[in-house]
Design goal:
3-stranded mixed beta sheet, 8-stranded mixed beta sheet, alpha/beta, single chain, 15% strand, 13 strands
C-alpha cells in the first residue's frame, strides 16, 4: 500500500507531462480499491484484467514492481518507451532506465542513498523541472493544544514499530500534556490496540481495525497530529494533509520512504548503523532505545504549536529530528532540525546524490565539486581513504574492458563503504548488460568522471 501511495506523485506528473493520455495502473486490487477515492484520476486494473491490456499499444510503460509477472507483462506489451524491469524476447529480465537501475542497485546497499522512492519512480520519464516546480499543500495546523493525537500502532515488520509498553507510556505522556490520544491500526492490529489500552489504563479511544483507508483519511481531518512508524498509513496521512511525526526505527531509510510532502517530521536514531539500515544483524534492536515516550510527547507538543524554535532547542540524545523539504535542485530532502548531526554520512550521501544526478544529466558537476571540497577541508582522513581506494577501480575496469572479464559476485559488497554506492551501481550495470563492451565503456566513463572530482587537491 505504501508503495502505491508513493506512486501518486508520478501519476500526477504523468497527467501533466502527457495531457489527454489515459493513465492505466496495474496493481493488487486489495490495495488500490480502498485508495481509489484518494488517488489521482487514473484507471486501475487488477491482475485479472490483463486480457484487456494486451489489446492495446502504449506510448510509455513504467514497471515499478519486483514481481516476475510484472516484468513479463512489461516485456509482452508494445510501447514506444519502457522503464523498469522488463523481460526480453529471450526470457531475461533487463532493467531499463538509468534511475530504475540505480534504484535496484541500492537494494541492501542504501547506506548513502539520498534519493526518495517517489522521485526515483519518476526521474527516467519526468523532467526535473516539473518535479521541482510541484507545490504540495502544507500540512494542516489545527487551532488549540488540547486536540486529538493519532497513534498508528502497526507496521509491516515488528522491527519497524514500538512495542506495547512504549505506546501505553506515550498515551500517558500525551494525556499529561493536555492532549487526547487516539489509537489507530489495521485489522491485524486490533489485539495490539487492546493491549495498549489495557496497559495504559486511562482514557483512550481505540479505533484499531475499525476504519477503512478512506475513513482513516476522513477522521484524520480532525486530528492535530499523526504519530506513526514508517508504514502505508503514514504516506496516506501525509498525502491527505495530516501533519505527521514519523518514528523512523528499524530497517527503514527515511531518505527513501519518509513522508514525501513538505513540513512533516522524522525522528531517527544517531547510531551509525541506522544510516541506510536494510536488515538488522545485531543481538537486538538497539536503535529503538532512544525513542522514549517523554521525548516523543515533547516533540509532539511543539509540533501542534507549530513552534519550530522549540523544536530546534529540543534535547534529543541518541536521536535526530528532521523535517521533510526539497533540496535546491527540487528533489526530496530531510532538513536537520535538532540532535547530533551525522556529518560524515550526510556529506557522503549528498556527494553521491550530486554525482549520480550529474552522471544521469539532472545537473552539472558544481554540486559534487563543492561537497568534495568540503570533505577535503573538514574530513581529510575520509578524503584520503577515498583517494587511496579509487585507483584500484580504474585498474580493474580497464582489465575488464580489455579482456571482457566479469567482476566477482562479491565485488560491490566487498568494497569500502565510502565507495559502495558507486560500486553497487556499476556492478549491476555490467550484469544487466551481460558485461558487453558498451557497458564496460560506460563504466570507465563514469569512473573517469568520478576520478576527475575526487582528489586531494
Amino acid at each position: 500500500m505504501g508503495d502505491l501511495i508513493l506512486s501518486f506523485p508520478l501519476f500526477l506528473w504523468l497527467e501533466r507531462t502527457y495531457p489527454g493520455h489515459p493513465i492505466w495502473v496495474v496493481a493488487e486490487e486489495n490495495f488500490f480499491r480502498p485508495l481509489m477515492p484518494l488517488s489521482p484520476k487514473v484507471t486501475y486494473f487488477p491482475w485479472a484484467g490483463l486480457g484487456f491490456l494486451r489489446k492495446e499499444k502504449y506510448e510509455l510503460i513504467i514497471n515499478l514492481s519486483i514481481r516476475e509477472q510484472a516484468a513479463s507483462l512489461a516485456g509482452e506489451l508494445g510501447a514506444e518507451a519502457k522503464f523498469g524491469p522488463v523481460t526480453d524476447s529471450e526470457g531475461t529480465v533487463r532493467i531499463l532506465g538509468d534511475w530504475q537501475l540505480y534504484r535496484a542497485s541500492v537494494v541492501q546497499n542504501n547506506r548513502h542513498n539520498r534519493f526518495h522512492w517517489a522521485d526515483l519512480n519518476a526521474l527516467d520519464c519526468i523532467p526535473l523541472s516539473r518535479i521541482s516546480k510541484t507545490s504540495w499543500s502544507d500540512p494542516r495546523t489545527l487551532q488549540g493544544e488540547s486536540g486529538r493525537i493519532g497513534l498508528f500502532l502497526g507496521a509491516s515488520e515488528e522491527s519497524k514499530r514500538p512495542g506495547v509498553e512504549f505506546w501505553a507510556k506515550l498515551c500517558s505522556e500525551i494525556l499529561g500534556r493536555g492532549m487526547k490520544p487516539v489509537l489507530f491500526g489495521g485489522p491485524l492490529d486490533k489485539g495490539l490496540g487492546a493491549d495498549v489500552a489495557r496497559t495504559f489504563g486511562g482514557p483512550v479511544l481505540d479505533m484499531t481495525g475499525k476504519l477503512n483507508l478512506g475513513e482513516l483519511a476522513a477522521v484524520g481531518q480532525s486530528l492535530q497530529l499523526f504519530i506513526t512508524p514508517d508504514t502505508g498509513p503514514m504516506h496516506l496521512a501525509a498525502w491527505s494533509g495530516l501533519k505527521v511525526l514519523n518514528l523512523s526505527m528499524g530497517n527503514v531509510n527515511p531518505w527513501e520512504t519518509g513522508p514525501y510532502q513538505n513540513d512533516h517530521y522524522v525522528l531517527r536514531s544517531t547510531m551509525s548503523c541506522a544510516l541506510g539500515c536494510w536488515t538488522c544483524v545485531r543481538d537486538r534492536l538497539h536503535c529503538h532505545d532512544p525513542f522514549t515516550p517523554s521525548r516523543i510527547a515533547t516533540v509532539a507538543k511543539s509540533m501542534i504549536r507549530d513552534d519550530r524554535a522549540a523544536l530546534h532547542k529540543t534535547n534529543l540524545p541518541g536521536l535526530r529530528l528532521y523535517s521533510s523539504s526539497r533540496s535546491a535542485s527540487g528533489v526530496y530532502n530531510l532538513l536537520h532540525i535538532s540532535g547530533r548531526s551525522a556529518e560524515a554520512g550526510d556529506r557522503l550521501g549528498q556527494f553521491w546524490q550530486e554525482f549520480f544526478g550529474m552522471a544521469f544529466g539532472l545537473w552539472d558537476s558544481r554540486g559534487a565539486d563543492k561537497i568534495w571540497a568540503e570533505v577535503i577541508e573538514q574530513q581529510p582522513l575520509l578524503a584520503r581513504k577515498m583517494c587511496f581506494h579509487l585507483p584500484r577501480f580504474g585498474k580493474e575496469f580497464s582489465k575488464g574492458l580489455a579482456k571482457s572479464a566479469s567482476l566477482s559476485e562479491t565485488f560491490w559488497n566487498s568494497c569500502p563503504l565510502i565507495l559502495r554506492q558507486f560500486a553497487g551501481y556499476i556492478h549491476l550495470l555490467l550484469q544487466n548488460n551481460d558485461y558487453d563492451r558498451a557497458s564496460w565503456i560506460k563504466v570507465l566513463s563514469l569512473y573517469e568522471r568520478l576520478a576527475a572530482i575526487v582528489s586531494e587537491k
